[in-house]
Task: structure prediction
Amino acid sequence: MMTQISREQLIELFRKAQFTDSQYSQGHITVDSPSLVQNLTLAFNDSNSGWHATSLPPVIINQTYNFHYNGALPSRFGHVFKGVEGLFRNNYFRGSSGKKFYIIELKFDNNDLNKPDIIKKYEKLLSFIKLLKDAAIFSDSSISKMLFLNDTDNIEIEPIYTKTDLDHLKEAAVDKIIQFIEDNTHSKQKFAILSKAIIAECKNETFDKRFTVLLSKLDDIYNTLEHDYAVFASSFSYEKLRNEIENAKLEEQVKIHKVITDIQNQILGIPVATVIVATQFKTQKSAQFDYVYQFAVNTGITIGVCIFTIIMGYLVYNQIQSLTGIKREIERKDQRFKFESPIVYKNIQVSTKKDPFQDLFDRLKTQNFILWVIVLVCVIACIATISIYANITVNPYSS
Result:
């Protein structure tokens, strides 16, 4: 038989209990189910639960019992906080959220899917604190104290905050800062800019006020991030990036030329094959009415043309696939330059009146068009050959 109450059973009691003082230290509970009879009995008999009966009769259904509560053992039941302020004052939970907790005031367990607004803001703040830890030169995981350092100053910040700070949290600014830092490139430089902005905003504040001041200036910090990063990005040499783009264009241009070069001999064979068809077909007269001879020669030529058409189709298909691969590589390089140096990229667009890789994309379209024309010519030639064959060749084996 169970002799100790589980965390889930204890939470069920908290959800049913009615506390009668602001300190959540005493109250009453109405036992309205057999499971609650068992849970309350276990709680009263387990000193680690923190529940104590004001009298000691057996617990029976449909009765109300008064109790005192003086705190459950965290190692067995997780942290039980009487209110959200207790959660925010805890050295661990004010900067992390990896442990179990329950808040009596909100009747909220950390596993609950339906979260009060204050808990949503708390989780949003934790994601921001995690970002700050990544930007800090050092962070103490036990109390989430962070050290920020730049060339001239250094400060320590601890996430000391209250419910009022969370009520006024600028969630939109938090989202913008997180998205800005996590967006693609130059994360190391962005963290350095964030660290510098934090030091500038908080260095003149007392230790216990720094985090509150930091939360109140999130919009200013985001504006600093945007401005300083723009300056950093524009510091790249225009000519250096231009040369990189030109080198990339030259490399891809060589690949595009190679696509046609690889099948140019076969392309040159198309008019040769056409001449052969035009001159080598045997009419009945030129075959001296030897229908077996005419049939053999013309059939051989026609089969050769069909095979040539199939081979050309296969070669052209391979080259079209090669062009598609080249196009994807050019698009990848285009996007990389665009995201790594958007300001310089924009300057190139303005100065040249077109995207840096537009010439290559136009060339790809032209090459694709040429390959499809080759396919069309081969198909037309094959159809013409078959048509001529059918009209001038006599089948000697037909009845």
Q: What stands out?
A: The radius of gyration is 40 Å. The chain is about 60% helix and 10% strand. The beta strands are 18-19, 26-31, 51-53, 63-69, 79-81, 101-103, 108-109, 138-140, 145-149, 154-157. The mean pLDDT is 85.
